[in-house]
From TrEMBL:
Keywords: Membrane, Transmembrane, Transmembrane helix. The chain crosses the membrane at residues 12-31. PANTHER family: HLYD FAMILY OF SECRETION PROTEINS (PTHR30469:SF15), MULTIDRUG RESISTANCE PROTEIN MDTA (PTHR30469). This is Efflux RND transporter periplasmic adaptor subunit. One of its GO terms (cellular component) is efflux pump complex. Belongs to the membrane fusion protein (MFP) (TC 8.A.1) family. GO terms for molecular function: efflux transmembrane transporter activity. It comes from Pseudomonas gingeri.
């Protein structure tokens, strides 16, 4: 009897355990019924920024300080430098002799030309007197006409020799004058490129001279901007030594030719001529031009295309019932440039439209989103 009961328990025990497990699975599956499903997908939160217009930055170009009067002085003829009476930094006056070549051979040629001139003058005077005597004798019938014609030809030859001697004398005097270097204006010597007793070639620059009372600033301005400039326009310049101190400039004029098709040279004068600026100094010139306002968005809002001037942005379109819920639509835009971390937009957006300013790489066209709402003051700032 006991053995029968024990056998029954061994037989029904595993069946009972399996039945309990089956009931548990059914209960779990009943909790996942599709009639009670809950949508668990969350909308992506996006940070927005309104498209705003900003004033264009003033044009800044580099310029060089120079004196209005400047000259590179050289001898017209070759020779040995005999005299050099000035050095760098010396003040000179107009007409002052600054340097001279060895003029010994030149002066000898001058003496030779002077002697030749005297001889030709005497010969011309003698031939002239002979020609007049022959004319009187011919008038008296004492000589033939051919004698008069011969005397006339001799006189004309003497006149030609005299003219040649006069020219030789002028050339010799010019050579003497060319052997001296004279200051064309009053100023200061800023460079000396040879030493005394050096052998100079014709045209080799020896001294550089500048005036000391009238400074200019020569700036290379983009041709597109130079076309709108006129004499009298104002600008300011900054030096590296005093970057916070502006120097007032006034436009005097500019070149009508664009160097390399891009830049035109504009000449400014200092409004205050007493300002001490060394010639050759490089300054930063800021042009005071009226710049149009342009639309700009953060660079992080751009999806760049294959061309650097084309890009895309995600424009936010709010729902009619809730301003914080909506979708983003992709928009093609044109980029004019980047200034201070913001992209200047040429077209494709209107002022006031809201664009996604971060995380644009994770969005798709038409995607439903919600506006990011900061929860702390730190995030709001």
């Amino acid at each position: 009897m006991f053995c029968h009961v024990d056998g029954f328990c061994r037989t029904t025990g595993p069946l009972f355990g399996g039945f309990c497990a089956l009931c548990l699975v059914i209960l779990l599956l009943s909790g996942c019924s599709p009639t009670e499903s809950i949508e668990t997908s969350a909308k992506r939160a996006v940070k927005l920024e309104a498209v705003s217009s900003v004033a264009g930055e003033a044009w800044r170009v580099s310029g060089n300080v120079r004196q209005r009067q400047r000259a590179s002085l050289a001898f017209e003829s070759a020779g040995r430098l005999e005299t050099l009476s000035v050095d760098i930094g010396d003040q000179v006056r107009q007409g002052q002799v600054l340097a001279a070549l060895d003029l010994q051979s030149v002066r000898l040629r001058q003496q030779q030309a002077r002697a030749s001139l005297s001889s030709s003058q005497a010969l011309a005077a003698e031939r002239k007197g002979n020609y007049r005597r022959q004319q009187r004798l011919y008038a008296a019938g004492s000589i033939a006409q051919s004698v008069v014609e011969s005397a006339q030809a001799s006189f004309e030859q003497a006149q030609a020799r005299q003219l040649r001697a006069v020219s030789d004398m002028a050339l010799a005097q010019h050579d003497v004058e060319r052997g001296q270097l004279v200051a064309p204006f009053s100023g200061r010597v800023v460079a000396r490129l040879a030493d005394r007793y050096a052998q100079l070639t014709a045209g080799k620059v020896l001294l550089e001279l500048e005036s000391s009372d009238d400074r200019q600033v020569a700036a290379a301005v983009p041709a597109s901007q130079a076309q709108g400039m006129k004499p009298g326009d104002v600008a300011v310049a900054y030096t590296a030594a005093q970057p916070s101190t502006p120097l007032d400039l006034v436009l005097e004029g500019g070149s009508s030719r664009a160097e390399n098709g891009l830049l035109q040279t504009c000449i400014f004068r200092l409004r205050n001529p007493s300002v001490a600026l060394s010639s050759g100094l490089t300054v930063l010139v800021q042009l005071h031009m009226e710049m149009p306002r342009r639309l700009a968005v953060p660079v992080s809002a751009l999806l760049m295309g294959p061309i650097s001037t084309n890009a895309q942005v995600f424009v936010y379109q709010p729902a009619t019932t809730n301003e914080t819920l909506g979708k983003v639509v992709i928009r093609n835009v044109s980029i004019a440039g980047v200034e201070q971390g913001r992209a200047v937009i040429d077209g494709g957006l209107a002022e006031g439209e809201q664009v996604v300013s971060a995380g644009v790489a994770f969005l798709s066209n038409g995607q439903s989103v919600m506006v990011y709402q900061p929860t702390t003051r730190l995030a709001q700032n």
